[in-house]
Amino acid sequence: MSTEAIGRPSTTATLPGDELWERTLADIAGMLRDLLAEEGLDDVEIDRGTTFHDDLELESIDLVTLAGSLREHYGEKVNVALFVADLELDEIIALTVGQLVDYVTESLRAAS
Hints:
- By secondary structure, the chain is mostly helical.
- The protein has 5 helices and no strands.
- The longest helix has 19 residues, at 19-37.
- It is globular, with a radius of gyration of 13 Å.
């Protein structure tokens, strides 16, 4: 199945170090810190390898909230629900911030 059929851009993977990727990481880290502040965990370090489940201990409702924040910030260009819908449960559990930043960056590039 092509990645375009499931809502993923078909561009090559985005590598850390480029300006859009770094800005997107900062945006997502800020959203996560806001979300974690409610739990008193807003000082946690967030980088490419940070996992949503093990490191940040996010529940599924937290991912829904994050998806809403991403939709509000980036608009229709980024659809996290389509991205997550194609993942297996173990892939969702192992999902890293870097993987989400890659997806968002690729989506933004595909939309421009």
